[in-house]
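Fold this sequence, please.
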Amino acid sequence: MDQRVREQDRATAAAAVLPSTDRPPLSASELRTIMASLMLAMFLAALDQTIVATALPTIGHQFHDVSNLSWVITAYLVASTAMAPVFGTLSDIYGRRVTITMSLVSFIAGSVLCALAPNLIVLILARALQGIGGGGILPVVQTIIADVITPRERGQYQAYFSAVWAAAGIGGPILGGVMTQYLDWSVIFWINLPLGVAAMAVLLPKMKRIPPHHRHRELDWIGGLLLMAAAVVVLLVLTWGGGRLAWRSPEILSMIAAAFVLTGFFLWHARRAAEPFLPLSLMGGTVVPHAMLIGSLTLGTTIGLTVYLPLYYEVVYGLAASQAGLALIPLVAVSVVGSTAVGRVMSRMHHYKWVAIAGTGLAAVVFGAIAIFTPLPLWLFLTLLATGALGLGTGFPTSTVALQNAVQRYQIGTATGASNFFRSMASSFAVAAFTAILLAMLGAREALNGHAVDITHDLSVVDTVAAFRPIFVAASLMMATACLAVTLMEERPLAGPPDADAVAVE
């Protein structure tokens, strides 16, 4: 790197560490306190995506309603996905303190209402309120990290938060099952009250010490509503299509048409608005679209495999449900190692893409090998899965840090919210695609008259292996595309502490 680029990097780093607000930099103690409270907030949002699943049978039995039970999950998913870009943009307009407060208050209030719900309808509505808060927590937390941590150091902290997400993914179903069996299902929601209040009590006073980077402007309500409406319709199509409703049913086809119309109106409005809700120019360039694609494909692959691997374990290897859940640990937990490796490289080297290129490429090769050689002995399958997860983990910090490093400070919230939005949408698309593959390979017919397809009925090992082979191929292709996106993405210098520049390796 030439001298001019080094000097520019140092100048940007100095501005990131000590912005022009005359506020002294955060002390190490203050930074640890802020990070701990942010990790607790993210843990709550991540936990509530998994802890409820094991309580659903008990909830359905108590409320004498099983047919609408899936809405307990769907309401949270739809609300959190639709609200992610909203809170990201609001944080750029009104500041991080206001938006993280709104997110946590909504999440806590929704949790209390869930615990007190007298019937399933109230529980579903309360889950939607909880999802609104949960949808704001993740992007705002990531934006606050960007406010207090320089880009070069940010990858290490993103790895810590990946570990929090993995812990919630592993511990959620177990914790939910224990609480439901030995206490009461409402406890899985009550636990959010003290933890959420604690996160707010620790974080909010420290937020005054964080330099403001938002820029007040008029909020484009029309653009925001159009984007949310389009997202809700698309998610409902992905949730109901092929299960509750046939893909070619009039309802699904009408919803698909509505999604195209809403998306078209959103794009038309965004091109003409003076201050659009989601500036289309923000989505261009040589970094942002690639980073969003990397994050979306990586998370989509992870979620898609997480949803359907238990079925593969139970049928092919004869594992019990609890054992199948434990067998997901290599996929969920080992990815944190890959995230940590990328974070360390980002903090020490100017050229950081090579780890993500190697990691995503490794994941593509591993999932391709599984598709070719399956069925494998269980120990070998888990070993290969853990190796693929190692590669998966490299995509998360790389995409987030590169994206935040490529936009203006007052646009970081908007960009981060949009990135989380597309990641959630990609996850839903991946699950829907994997479901369609299974149904097609197993010869199942689409559900009609509101009856769901049961693809687990009387499955043989041979049929299951044949059905999952194209799923592993799809996972391989998704990661190969992510690898290509990392390769094509511009590798911009990451600003860091001035003293770190002196020791960074070319």
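The chain has three domains: 25-219, 220-276, 278-506. The chain is about 75% helix and 0% strand.
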